[in-house]
Amino acid sequence: ATAEKGGYDHFMLKEIHEQPKAYRDTMGSRINADGSKIVLDEIRMTEDQIRSIRNIHVVACGTAYHAGLVGKSVIERLARVPVEADVASEYRYRSPIITKDTLVVVVSQSGETADTLAALREAKRQGARVLAITNVVGSSVAREADDVIITWAGPEIAVASTKAYTSQLIAFYLFGLYLAEVLGTIEAADLRKTIAALQELPEQVENILQQSAKMESFAKQIAAHNSLFFIGRGLDFAIAQEGSLKLKEISYIHSEAYAAGELKHGTLALIEEGVPVIALAAQEELLEKTLSNIKEVKARGAYVIGIGLEGNEELSEFVDAAIYLPRTLSLLTPALSVIPLQLLAYYASLAKGNDVDKPRNLAKSVTVE
Ligand code: G6P
Questions:
Q1: Closest residue (by CA) to atom 8 of ligand 1?
Q2: Fewest CB within a 10 Å sphere: which of 9, 131, 156, 261?
């Protein structure tokens, strides 16, 4: 059994370590040889059709939805098209405003999730064009969408999604840049710079994986607690939500993700001596604001683990323990900052003696409503 796990104890750990390859494979030939252009030959939408897009709805479930939250920011920032992100089970029943100029992007590792598939069908019925981001060639979602971007993460076995999620992030970066190129919302120099930064990500992920022992020791500390918080702003908040879900899924520790600036409107009441708070502080332009939120929880006795960027080591003065990520563009930090959180969830689950790859009550793919 360890053989099929490539020498790792669990599929999840193997899949976490496969991420540098998954990033490379998903980028693959979708970046031209001199790094100046995104090549998405699989997109059949014409440039005119792209220019007629008025709004984008990203629809997915679970971890794929969290990739959609990052995708929303990525597309809005790069292509300046308004994007909404919804969980599929809500989207289907909330009478979303869909027109023929709406692009619906469904995100699904398996391509078989019932709610996501139903949302896709409803969107098509109402005349929208549908783009699928999926990991399974020939899946229902891939077959029924108008356009498909395959994430080349390879088969994902562990119920808790890791490499499929980060490959979805890469797909959103590629698609966002592609839209920006067509719509003329990015300068050639910025495009090159972003592509170069994307290409550095796999090695940077390797660097973070080398810090696994640190995450293992943090995980042992939090495993004794029954509730904790993840906080962050902007893209860090999207990652906080994914980190919280990952931890809940496999460690069964209750946790909540909070927009750091929103703490004072309620959640701060739950912070007392020793409550662990994982603070994401990788959005440099929001760093000062996040540091002030960290001070708020520290003042109430929280035990804070900070996640920041190399070069911003002043974070250590505000937190109890910190981990630093290699520097990248703000927009790309999610592809790095989620890695320590995956490791944290993995080691917390392990510390609690849980079945890491097959958590109780959960299925890899939910094909019924
Ligand atoms: C299940 C899995 C999650 C996954 C979600 C959506 O709940 O346990 O890991 O994120 O379904 O799955 P999909 O295959 O559509 O990405």
A1: 364
A2: 9
